[in-house]
Amino acid sequence: MWINMGPQHPMTHGLWNLRVKIDGETVIDVDPEMGFLHRGIEKISEDRHYNEVITLMDRCCYVAGLAWEHLYILSAEDALHVKPPQRAEYLRVLCDEFQRIGSHIMWYAAFVQDIGLMSPFLYGMRDRDLILDLFQSYTGARLTYEYLRVGGVRSDLPPGFTARAREVLDWLDARFGEYDQLCLGSDIFRKRCDNLGILKASDCVAHGVTGPMLRSAGMKRDLRKDRPYSVYRQLDFDVAVAEGADVTARYLVRMEEMRQSVRILRQVLDWLDQNPGPVLAENLPRWLGAPYAPIGREGYLLKRNYPKGVGFSSVEEPHGEAQAYVVNEGGEHPYRVKFRSPVFANISAARQYLVGYHVADIPPIMGSVDVCVGEVDR
Amino acid sequence: MQPEELQARISPKLGENLLGVEPFAGTAGRVRFRPAGALELFETVRDDLGFRHLSMVGAIDWVDHREVFYVVWSDDARQYALLSTDLAADAPHVESASGIWPSANWHEREAWEFVGVTFDHHPDLRHLLMPEGYAFHPLLRSFKLHEPEELEVKSRRV
Amino acid sequence: MSTVTLFSVSYDLSTVIARGVASVFPQPIHGWILSSDVVLGFAILFFAIILLAASMINTIMLIWWERKLLGRFMDRRGAMHVGYAGLLQNFADGFKLFRKFTVRPREADSAGFYFGPTAYMATSLIIFGVLPISTGWNGGTLPLTLLLALVIFSFAPLFIFVSAWSSNNKYSLMGGMRSAAQMIAYEVPILLAVVAVVIVAGSFDLTTIVYEQQNYWFWGPLVVALIVFVAGMLAEMERIPFDLPEAEAELVEGWNTEYGGMLFAFFMLADYLRGLVGSFLVVLLFLGGWTLPTWVPSSLTSFPLAGIVIFMVKTYLVFGLFVWVRASLPRVRTDQLLRVGWNRMIPLSLLAIFLAAVLVTVKCLPLFGCVPSPGV
Amino acid sequence: MTTPAAQTKPAPAASPPAGSVPVELPMAGAPAVPFIEIETLRSAQFIPAAKETLGDLIAEQGQAKVIRPVFNWAGRNSLFPLHWGLACCAIEFAAAFGARWDAERFGVVPRSSPRQCDLMIVNGTVTWKVAHKLITLYEQMPDPKWVIAMGNCATGGGPFRTAYSVVPGVDKLIPVDVYIAGCPPRPEAMLDGILRLENLIRERKE
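Predict the joint structure of the above. Result:
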C-alpha cells in the first residue's frame, strides 16, 4: 500500500511529499517528491543585482538565512574580486554561529515534537526567540536579515550588544543540559531513537550526505576545519562527532555542535570587543555598493571594464555542506548562480535510511535529517 | 593537490579526451574534458585520485554551447576539484555519473530539468522540482521571466 | 442513611411534577400518573438528565483543566481570553463544532461512519450511570458495578475500529488497527489489577470497595496494582505516551482524520469522558473515593455535598497527573507498546494479585494496618 | 524550443463540459499544464452529508437573536487553523504558537486534518505545483471556513512574483478574507490578522 505523507502532513515540516510503500507497518519503499516550494531562485538571481540576490538567500533557507548569505557572499566576492575587512569577517562568523544555534534549536523543537514530546517544542521556541532578539538588534529582522553585503556587512553592532550576547550565551549553555535531560534522560526516547535510521559512513559518502548526519557516522568532516573559510582558522573549537550513525547519534552531534558554537561565539565576542574598525570594504564600485543609485558615466564605465570571474564557495551550513557557484560575465547581474543544498543530498538518500523500519519511525528519522524545504527546492 | 598533479595523473587514462587542467581558486583545479571520456574520468577521479564524494552537478547555458560541471571532494586531500565539459547546444548529452556516484542521481535530474542536458543511462530521468509534463527548461537564457500581470490567469472564486 | 442524594432529589422532583401534572387530568389518568412506576420512571429520567449534564460539564472543565495545566508545564498561559481565564473556551469550541458542516467522503460507508462516533459517545456516557460519586449515589445496589463499568469501558475499540474502517482513509485504518490492538492488549492487565483490589475488598461493588478503604486507602499496599492500572488506563484513554492511534506526527489525526464537525466533537468529548472515567476509577479503587483519612476531623468534612466535592478534587488531581505525564514523556512505538503490555504488564499484575492474596492471608501489615474481613 | 513569451496564450481546450469553469494554472505560458475543474474535483471526491446540519436547522427555526450571536461568538473564538507550513512564514507561524506569543490564548489551536479546521493560513509562497493540493485542502475544509494570506508571497507573490513557478497571490486560487503584510510578518502581525478576522466574523450577518 502506498501512502502519501505530505505535502500537508505534520511530519514533513515543510512542503514536500514522502511517498511510502508499506507492508503492515513496515516500510518497504520510499520515494520523496520535492519541488512544491520551487521558487526559481536561481533564475530570479540572473535578473538581480549582486546585492539583491542576498534578499533571496534569506528566503532560500529560512532557518539559516545568514549562513546562506555567507555562502553566496563568499562566491560572489570571488567572482567580483572583492575582499572584505577583517572585522566584517568576524561579524559574519558571529552571524553564522548564532544562526547555527538558532537552526539547531529549531530542529530540536520540531524533532522532539515528532516523537510526541510536546513541551520541549515550547522550550526550544522560547530560547530561539532570544537569539532572534539579538539578530533583530543588529540586523533589524527576525528571519530575513539582508545583513551581509558584497565586501563586508551592512552595519556594525549596536552599543551594548556583546554584553547582552554573553548573557544569552550563558542562558543557552544552561538550557542545553535541560534539553539533554528531557531527551536522553528518558528511557522511551532512547528506545525510540537508538539503532534507528542507520546510515553508515560509506553510504553517506556515496550518496553525498554531509553535515551532522555524516558526523554522526563517525566521520570527522567539517569544512570549518578541513577547508577553513572566513576566520575559522583563528578560532578554537572541536568538531562534534558521534558513533552509531543513528538518530541518537545525530541528536548528540547537534547538541555538541551547539556547545561548540557557544565556545566559538565567546571568542568572537572577545575579538569584536577589542578590535573596532570598518565593516565594509572601501572603494567598492558604485554599482556594487548601491544597487538603486543611478549609474552615472563613471560607474557605467567601471562596470564595463570590470573583470569577469567565476566564484566557487562552500560553507558548513547548519544542515551540512552548502556550495555556491557564481559566474560573473561582466554585468550588474550574475550570469548564472548555482547552489548546492545539503538537505537536497540528504533527502535523496532517503531510501537508504528509511526502508526496513516502521511507519512510526519515519517521523523521528526524517526529523533527525533536519529538512528545510526552502533550500532543497530553492 | 595541484593542477599539475591532477593533469599528470589523469592524462594517461584519458588521453586526448582530457582538454587540460586549469587552476581554480579554492579547489585543486578545474579539469576540462570531452564528454566522450566522461565515464573514464569519473572512475579515475573516484578510484585513483580518491575523490569519493560528489557534491554538486550543475549546468550552465552559454547560448552557443552548454557546460556541465561536477564538484567532487576528496577526504584524503581535503580539497575540492571541478570537472567540466562542454556540450553541443543542439542535442546536449553526456554519460550519467550516477553509476559511479549515487549522489549524482538527483543533481542530474535537476540539471536535465532546468538546463535540458540529457544524461545517458540515467536510471530515473524525470522531473524533480517542476510538475510532471512541464515543457520548458527554465534556466536556459532564452527563457525570459515576465511580470505576473503579463500572465493571463483565468480564475474564479470557489 | 438519610442524607440527600442525587437520586432522592430526582425522585422528589419527579413526585412534585407528577402531582402538578396529574391535578389537571380526571381520575383514571390522574391515578395512573401518580402510580409509583411512572414516578419512578420519571425519577430515573431526571437522574439521567442531571447525570448527563453534570458529566458533560465536567468533561468540558476537564479539557480546560488540561489545557491550562499543559500551558503551565510548557511555560505559557493556555486559553485565557474567552471567559474568565479561558473557562468558556471549550464551550465556544463545542458550539462551533456543533455549527460546522459535517462532511462525509463519498467512498465512506455511511452506516459505520455515523454509527461509530455515536456509539463511542453513548457507551462512554453509560458508564457514568454505574459509577458512584458519593454515598447513596445509586438508588439501589448493584453487586457487580465494577465489572459492569469495565465491560462497558472495553466496548470502545470495536466502535473506533468500525468508524476508522468505514471512513475509508489509510491513516484512519492504521489508527483503528493500532487502537484495537492496543486496547485489547491492555484490557487484560487492567482486569487483573482490578482483581487484586477485589481480593482485598472482597466485593465487586464500587460502593463497598470505597467503604473498605475507611481504614487505609488501597494505593499503599496495592501499589503494584496501582501502577499497572494507571499505565493500562493511559493506554485505554490513548494519551501520551500511548497515544499511537492518533499519533499526530505519523498518522495525521489517526482514526478521526476524516471526521469533522459534530462527529469530531463526539470523539473529542468521548475521549475526555473516558479520561474522566479513568480518573474516577483510580480514585474509587485506590484513593478512597469520597472519603478522607480518619485523622481529618469530621467537622471539616460536614459541609453539604462534601462527598462530591472531595471526590471531584481527587479526580482532577489524578487527571492532573495524567497531564503531567503527557507534558513530559515522548510517545512509544506500536511494537514496544504491545511488548510492554504482554511481557511486562501481565506478570506485574499477577504479582499484584499475589501480593493482595498475601495481604488478605496475613491480615495485618505493620505499615498499612489491618485488612477488614472480606465480604462485608 | 520556442520562447515561452510567444506562448502566453495557449490554444483553448477542446470544448469544456458545460457547467464547469476550468481554472487554468499558467506556468510561464506552458501549454502542457493540465486543467483542473473545481466542479469535477468537488463532485468526484466530496459530497456533503446533509444540506443542513442540526445547528443550521435550529438557527433557522427562529431565535435568531439568541442562537446566532452565540454561534457567531463560538465561531470567532475558536478558530482552528490548518497545521501546515509552506515557506518562511511557517517559521513565524510556529513562533506564534511558541511560549512568547502563545496563540492558544485566543483559542487558536492548529489541527492537522483539514476536516477539523475553520481557517487556512497560507503561510508562504504558493507554487503552481502545490496549487492543486491547496485547492483540494480548501475544499476538504467544512463550511464555514476562512482564509488568511500571510506574508507578501501569499498576498501577491512577494519577491518571487516574477518567477515561472510561483502563483502571484493565493487569491488567484481561493478566496481570501484577511491579508497580512510582511516578509515574513512578525508573530504579532499574525495574531493581529487573526483578531481582524474575528472582527470580520463578528460583523457577519448571515
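Confidence is low (pLDDT under 50) at residues 291-301 of chain A.
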